[in-house]
Amino acid sequence: MGVKNQTQVVEFVFLGFSGISHGHTYLFLAFLAIYLVTVLGNLMIFTMIQLDSSLHTPMYYFLSHLSCFDICISSVTVPKILVNFLRQQQTISYNECMAQMFFLISFSGAEAALLAVMAYDRYAAICKPLHYSRLMNTKVCTVLAFATWVWGLLNSTLHTALSFKLDFCGVNQIHHIFCDLPPLMKIACNDAHINELALHVASIFVAEGPFAIIVFSYAFILSSILKIRSTTGKRKAFSTCASHVIVVFIYYGNALLNYNRPSAGYSLATDTLVSTMYCIITPMLNPLIYSLRNKEVKAALKKAVDSWRKSEHHHSIS
Question: Relative to the CA of 253, which of 170, 230, 279, 294 has its CA 20 to 30 Å away?
Answer without folding.
Answer: 294
